[in-house]
Amino acid sequence: MGTTIARRAALLSAEAGVAVSPRVAVTLGDFACDATEALRELASVIPPAALGGRSALPEVLPIVPSMREAVSLERYNAAERRVLLRASLNATRSVEVLLSASAVDTSVLLLGPLSSVLRIEQGRAEFVDERMRSLIIEETGAFERRRAHAELGRAAERAGYASAALLHEARAAESGVQRSLARRLVQEAATQLERGFTGNAIMLARQARTAAPEQATATRSLLARAAFWHGCFDDARAMIGDSASHDPQLVELARLMEKIDAGPEPGADDRLRALRVKEWLLEAAEAQNDLKILETVMAAEQFWYAGNADEADDLHARMLLSAGVAPGITGWENGTAQPTPLLQAHVCVIRAELSMRAGDMAEAARVLVAGVRELPMELAAAGVVPKFVRTIGASGTDIDVALADHYDRLLRTTSVKYVPIGPLKAERAVAAMRASGGRPSGPPTSDSAPELRSLLTPRQCAVWDLLAGGLSNREIGESLGISERTVEVHVAAILRKAGVTSRSRLLALLNQ
């Protein structure tokens, strides 16, 4: 898994001439299905700041020329295209909202060609291949998109997703929105930020700013703060601009970013630097979960540096038991909350360090690689991540040490092997990590492949074996004497059972 991430990041870095964030490399590699030419073309059209993880990727990734032959809408009828468009635009990803907005029965979703295109899990409909989503949006006119947003807004309202309904309502407007609606968008964006869903906050605030220019002042501060906690520092800087002196919150945010950007002083203790960063974050935190986590972490660190390992262990355990992120939660559900991505990255680093200090290098590697795939790790804990990666690699544990080099390039530092000073008495913290399950670890590793195979039907096992040999769906169908359409259904089922969202991730697993 780690090798795939490093290889993608290296290729994209070489093509773009900038250091590419590993989590961005994962996203673009999955989208391009690891096709080298497609990755090169993507690197040429994505801004350098977005490639480096300092700015958000486009909400809809572009279909580059080399992808044109790989995805097509020709096989779908009008009803199926209607569902696909609404699935592409559906903020909630809710199947209930999708069916209601599409005005079709469940057979269209479950028994036709769409069953191999849309993956249904935990009440949500996700595209098996994200390129299909981009293609649908690109090839649909503005009028059709607005009509779909209007239908999705009404369906979301009926299903109880009031904030998502608000977003769809604004996107359905032809030109501009009422001032009252723009104010509601800003208010809901602030609520989403407080609950930790920074991506939702950014979408709502941008919509308010685009639709109602008079809301620019109110949205600028919101966008800057949400971008910061989302891990997009360049976006935050762009919003701060020259107006920081007129907004106390932006003044403090600008100062905080200057401190973090300054990096550690020569010869500084990285653990003390990480503690200082957490102190700064605590001063600026807005999300309630962020505040609780940071307060607990600060107290634990103070106990640790005072030599009271027992109290530090207990507080770390309390934090880990309460800092989990529920799977499938999008933030559009009423009352849900989670830590912001930037805080999740810090929690990920804490999990890894505690595992290392307790001698469980395999768990530390699992936690770090999961974070590499999802979180702004390049901004977490004062840049100790590359040192952790090297320490884990030096222990003989399976992790790609090349990831450390990519992070060093992003951080513009030269780190050496970092060996935790310990051991730390962390029985409760380690038990808390195991009890809470840690963060989702992404696709299964090669160790779990036999277990996954046991979940497949005999026909799915046959398809699995031929996939591992690199055969296309058509070739698999010819080999097994079944139609290409039937092969697609089996591949979709295997993807669902493997817990991956694209054929490229499945192939990476098979190749291990």
Q: Would you mind describing this structure in some detail?
A:
One of its GO terms (biological process) is regulation of DNA-templated transcription. Among the domains are: 2-67; 270-436, no CATH class; 446-511, Arc Repressor Mutant, subunit A, CATH 1.10.10. The chain has 28 helices and two strands. It has helices at 2-16, 22-31, 36-45, 48-51, 78-89, 95-102, 106-110, 130-138, 142-159, 162-172, 179-194, 198-211, 216-230, 233-240, 248-262, 270-284, 288-305, 309-322, 341-357, 361-374, 385-394, 402-411, 427-436, 449-453, 458-468, 473-480, 484-498, 503-511, and strands at 118-121, 124-127. Strands 1-2 form a two-stranded antiparallel ribbon.
Span of the ends, CA to CA: 8 Å
Contiguous helical run count: 28
Q: What is the overall silhouette? A: globular
How are helices and strands ordered from N to C?
Answer: HHHHHHHEEHHHHHHHHHHHHHHHHHHHHH
Summarize this, please?
The chain is mostly helical. The chain contains 28 helices and two strands. The longest helix is centred in the N-terminal third of the chain and has 18 residues, at 142-159.
State the main characteristics.
mainly alpha, transcription, Arc Repressor Mutant, subunit A, 64% helix, single chain, globular, Sig_transdc_resp-reg_C-effctor
Would you spell out the secondary-structure blueprint of this structure?
Layout: H1 2-16, H2 22-31, H3 36-45, H4 48-51, H5 78-89, H6 95-102, H7 106-110, E1 118-121, E2 124-127, H8 130-138, H9 142-159, H10 162-172, H11 179-194, H12 198-211, H13 216-230, H14 233-240, H15 248-262, H16 270-284, H17 288-305, H18 309-322, H19 341-357, H20 361-374, H21 385-394, H22 402-411, H23 427-436, H24 449-453, H25 458-468, H26 473-480, H27 484-498, H28 503-511
Antiparallel strand pairs: 1-2
Helix pairs in contact: 1-2, 1-3, 2-20, 5-6, 5-8, 5-9, 6-9, 9-10, 10-11, 11-12, 11-13, 12-13, 13-14, 15-16, 16-17, 17-18, 18-23, 19-20, 21-22, 25-27, 26-27
GO molecular function, one term: DNA binding
Pfam families: GerE
Keywords: DNA-binding, Transcription, Transcription regulation
